[in-house]
Amino acid sequence: MNKPTSKNDLSPNSHGGKRENAGRKAQYKEKTVVMRVPQSKVIEIKQYLNPQIQHDAEKHPDLQPIHFKTKLSIAAPIESVAAGFPSPAQDYLDGAIDLNDFLVSSPESTFILRVNSLSMKNAGIEVGDRILIDRSLQVETGDIVLALINNEFTVKRFMKEKLSDGSEKVWLKAENPEYSHIFLHSEEQLVIWGVVTCILKKLR
User: Which residues form a coiled coil (predicted)?
Assistant: First the structure.
């Protein structure tokens, strides 16, 4: 009959006990402590603790005004199609859509900007994409905007939240975890230059 295995017979790396390279890896080479922070400061503190790449603001973005030279109308189906193509028969078409009117509601206040950053990647905006920016629109929470801070431009999501004391906090959200959100200091002034209304992206 085999003798039952005792705990002392188990190898150090079998079950239980301390194992080499086990446990949470320390980000900082020192002891950590638990602390209580105001709820309104949680995001800022997390951003400070997570190392981020340099900001992507620029002083002279390549903004181009809109010029309508031609009108381009595309046939529009009466109903949306889940997959495939609508029938080419005239009975299934409902006039046409002019892309100028569809994409731009205010030509005199709309500009095109070529994006040079990945800070809004998770919002579908990548390097080389062109975005339409309308200066006539009133900004709302959640809008993607071209913002001006300290004479530098950046594309971010505009965020406004009400704090427990009744005041409002405005900040700019990056849609890529590798980039920092922007929290304004008391001496900084934020100007919303325009609201992003469209992403111009070719699939091929």
Answer: none
Of 3, 71, 80, 119, catalytic: 119
In this structure, which long-range contacts are made by residues 27-31, counting pairs with CB atoms below 8 Å and at least 24 apart in sequence? none
Of 13 and 46, the one with more pLDDT: 46
The CATH number of residue 58's host domain is 2.10.109.10
29, 40, 73, 156: the catalytic one is: 156
Q: Of 103, 128, 149, which residue sits at a domain end?
A: 103
In this structure, what is the dihedral angle of CA atoms 64, 65, 71, 76, given to the nearest 10 degrees? 70
Residue 86's pLDDT is what?
A: 56
Residue 23 domain-assigned?
Answer: no
Give Cα 124 distance to the centre of its chain: 8
For the question of residue 186 being annotated catalytic, the response is: no
Are the C-beta atoms of 136 and 111 separated by less than 8 Å?
no
Catalytic residue list contains 119: yes
Q: How far apart, in whole angstroms, are the C-alpha atoms of residue 86 and residue 76?
A: 9
* Total of domains in the chain: 2
Same domain, 161 and 183: yes
User: Between 130 and 69, where is the model more confident?
Assistant: 130
DSSP one-letter string for 105-172: S-GGGEEEEE---STTGGGT--TT-EEEEETTSPP-TT-EEEEEETTEEEEEEEEEEE-TTS-EEEEE
From CA 33, how far away is CA 188, in angstroms rounded? 32
